[in-house]
Amino acid sequence: MVELLIVRNPDDGSRLQYLMRLPQPGGDLLFRTSDTWPRVKALYCHPVGLDEWPDDPEIVERIPLRSCQRRGASIDVIAQRGRENRSQVVFTTARGRDAVFWQSPRTRKQARPNVRTPTARAQGLEQLHILVDTHERYAYRFATQQSITVPKPLPCGDYGLEVDGALVASVERKSLADLVTSLTTGRLRYQVADLAALPRAAIVVEDRYSQLFKLDRVRPAVVADGLAELQVRWHSVPIVFCETRPLAEEWTYRFLAAAHAWAVTEAAALQRISPVRIDVAVQAPTNGPSTADVRAWARSAGLPVPDRGRLRPEVWQAWRDAHPE
């Protein structure tokens, strides 16, 4: 029987952790790849020689095939099973170089959702500095957005935003497979708890919510119930499904830009990210000026202040320095 073999890549330093051996009449083809099937997105495949096939392979999947025929620039792979039975290995070019991608009908459709992401600046910002966790693999580049990425270790999340040296917002990126794995192993619960400690945080999923109910390795109801329980327990951390990776990247950019606008204008946000909790009674004693008086003075002095709410500690200190009596 003709089989498609997926084994563990013995090279621990490779970012492509699997080897895929594809049977062909003229000789088998061997590729490095990042997953065992293109379930969420098209998988990049790096062709290598058969001499890289390990002597004692750790077989991850052995997929019987009904057909594996080359048609022009692609190889049609039809597995002998009910679900996830059709895929293509496509030989193409990317950025002027030869490339090979492994795709399924669903990932091919998702790659072209017939939408165009906007190019307008989010919240009117000329450039948004986005922190990218140094442990994030295949990170967003935000190439089409007005932003600058800065690699930095983050305590939680994959993409973050700092204001005055404090992390005020973070986004955790998940593929559908990673979401399901982290949920069933319990790791997602700790990740959400860490995110909930920030003023603003979210989880973005690179797939549709409807794909949860097409899972075949875990009961869909278990995943749906688990996500609902997380949203009830940590309601301040939304879980957003964004259909495709480009749309998830766009949503992350817009979310962090909105968090930036919130953090620099809202008095409650400024109070929350301040390292010292400020008591209103200390800032505005009964025999001193009112908040409205200090707000009016600060505006006349050219200091940025919110229209309502508490004033920052440095605004009160500036008023005291200008009125030593």
TrEMBL record:
Residues covered by the ERCC4 domain: 129-209
Domain of life: Bacteria
GO molecular function, one term: DNA binding
DNA-binding as UniProt keyword: yes
Entry keyword annotation includes DNA-binding: yes
Transmembrane segments: none
SUPFAM superfamilies to which the protein is assigned, alphabetical: Restriction endonuclease-like
This protein's name: ERCC4 domain-containing protein
GO terms for biological process, alphabetical: DNA metabolic process
Keywords: DNA-binding
Stored Pfam families: ERCC4, Lsr2_DNA-bd
